[in-house]
Amino acid sequence: MASTTVNVVRYTALLGGVFYGIVHRRSLQKAHDAEVKHHAIHEREHLIEEAKEAWKKKQESSKGGVVTNPEDPNFDLEKLIAKWESDSK
């Protein structure tokens, strides 16, 4: 049978290990949460940049004055074909 001193040392080591595990887990979780937040912020910035570029491209293409919607009363097939031909060159 183990003496009282040995049992005290065992349980002290056990509780110390459990406490260390909890503290270590918290620090790892905090670092992971910070990384996830950082990634989410940069992902949003990237999406905003893509949206701005798409908007600029849309605005530039609409300056051509060619209506591409066939349901629009201002639709002109000849202008659309001419624009496609000039874009392909």
TrEMBL record:
Pfam families, A to Z: ATP-synt_E
InterPro entries: ATP_synth_F0_esu_mt
GO molecular function terms listed in the Swiss-Prot or TrEMBL record: proton transmembrane transporter activity
Record localization: Mitochondrion inner membrane
GO CC field: mitochondrial inner membrane; proton-transporting ATP synthase complex
Signal peptide start-end: none
UniProt keywords, alphabetically: ATP synthesis, CF(0), Hydrogen ion transport, Ion transport, Membrane, Mitochondrion, Mitochondrion inner membrane, Transport
One of the GO biological process terms: proton motive force-driven ATP synthesis
Chief location bin: mitochondrion
Function: Subunit e, of the mitochondrial membrane ATP synthase complex (F(1)F(0) ATP synthase or Complex V) that produces ATP from ADP in the presence of a proton gradient across the membrane which is generated by electron transport complexes of the respiratory chain. ATP synthase complex consist of a soluble F(1) head domain - the catalytic core - and a membrane F(1) domain - the membrane proton channel. These two domains are linked by a central stalk rotating inside the F(1) region and a stationary peripheral stalk.
Family affiliation: Belongs to the ATPase e subunit family.
Subunit and interaction comment: F-type ATPases have 2 components, CF(1) - the catalytic core - and CF(0) - the membrane proton channel. CF(1) and CF(0) have multiple subunits.
Protein name per Swiss-Prot or TrEMBL: ATP synthase F(0) complex subunit e, mitochondrial
Species per Swiss-Prot/TrEMBL record: Dichomitus squalens
